[in-house]
Every structure is written in C-alpha cells, then in structure tokens.
Amino acid sequence: MADASSGRLLYVVGPSGSGKDSLLRHARQRLEAQSDILFAHRYITRPVELQGENHIALSVAEFEARRSANLFAMHWDSHGLRYGIGREINFWLQEGRDIVVNGSREYLPEALCRYPELFLVQITASAETLSTRLLARGRESAEQVARRIERAGQFTPAHEPSAIIENNGTLTEAGDRLVALLCATRKKAWRTCK
C-alpha cells in the first residue's frame, strides 16, 4: 500500500504502436529542468536499446532480489518480461512532486488499489496508425500485428481516463499536448511550463 502523498501519480498507458514511449521521452526532455514533475524509471528484464525507453536493465535474478526486498512500489509481468517501478516514488510523492509513470494497462486495477488518486492518461491512435507503426518496427509478423490491434481495441480501462491524448499526427503535436497536460495538472503553477 502506498503512503499518503501530496504529489500526484500520473499513470500513462497505451497500446503498442500508440507512441507512448516517444511521447514520454519528448515530455521528459521538455520538462527536464522541472524538479516538481519527475519521470520514474522502469526496471525491466531486457537490455537497453538506443532508440527505446530509458529504463534500468536487470537480470531476472536481480529483479527477483529487488522484488523480494520490497524495493518496488509496483511490478508486473508482460510479454515475457518483468517490469518494476522503484519505491522511491512514494518519497517523491510525499515531497509534493508529481510522478509520471509508464504504466501497464493490465496492471491498472492493482495500481488503483495502491494509488487510488492516480491520474490516468491514455494514449490512443487509430487502428491504421497502430498497424503502420508496428509493421514499420519489423519485430512482428502481419498476423501478430493484427492480434495486437485487436487486443488494443478490446481494452476497457478499469478506471475512466482522466485525460486522453490521440497520437495520430506528429510526435511534436501529441508530445506538446502531453507536456501541457502534465503542467496543467501540476498542483503548484510552474512559470516554465509553457
């Protein structure tokens, strides 16, 4: 159970191909000078990729050791990988900072149990956009991409999204909408959030 907090947890979800990682990277770069809006690193059991998410790579054994030591505020399994969010976010929340988390749609019910006041941000894109992006990645067959798109269309959040950002256009357009949203939800106004 999370500690009582004065900051806000912004839990960002979206299907594969929605551009969630790119939007979060864009927002992180735009808000890097902010000390009251922090982006939590995810601990993941996969190697770091140059173009991928800025995460902390752990072996399965390292991940399990940290989980056993109760060092994760949240953790889940997805697509054969393990994901964790460090317990440090609870301290940051208590300090009044807003924390942006790259979340899992499937883990959302548990995240809501731990952080009932979380602010859910859903990133969406049309089926055509998802298909184009996923096929361009070249990691999956057309059949696997079709299954991902079908799964994305069937997702019903366990909690009404607090905000939805459609990402069918350019990264800058949707990225700037995410930055504006993060700044607007900030409890204390920041002069540099523009």
What does this structure look like?
- With 194 residues, the protein is α/β, with parallel strands linked by helices.
- The protein has helices at 20-30, 60-68, 88-94, 108-114, 127-137, 142-154, 171-185, and strands at residues 9-13, 37-39, 42-44, 56-57, 72-78, 81-86, 98-102, 119-124, 163-166.
- A hairpin with a 2-residue loop joins strand 5 (72-78) and strand 6 (81-86).
- The longest helix has 15 residues, at 171-185.
- The chain is globular.
Short synopsis of the structure:
By secondary structure, the protein is of the alpha/beta class. It has helices at residues 20-30, 60-68, 88-94, 108-114, 127-137, 142-154, 171-185, and strands spanning 9-13, 37-39, 42-44, 56-57, 72-78, 81-86, 98-102, 119-124, 163-166. The chain is 38% helix and 21% strand.
Could you tell me the mean pLDDT? 86
CATH superfamily: P-loop containing nucleotide triphosphate hydrolases
Oligomer: single chain
From the coordinates shown, what is the CATH architecture? 3-Layer(aba) Sandwich
Strand order of the largest sheet: 2-7-1-8-9
Residue runs with pLDDT of under 50 for 5 or more positions: 1-5, 188-194
Reading the helices and strands in chain order gives EHEEEHEEHEHEHHEH
Q: Looking at CATH, which topology would you report?
A: Rossmann fold
What is the terminal separation in angstroms? 34 Å
Number of strands: 9
Morphology call: globular
Count of helical regions:
7
* Sheet having the most strands: 5 strands, parallel
What's the CATH class, please? Alpha Beta
Rg measurement, Å: 16 Å
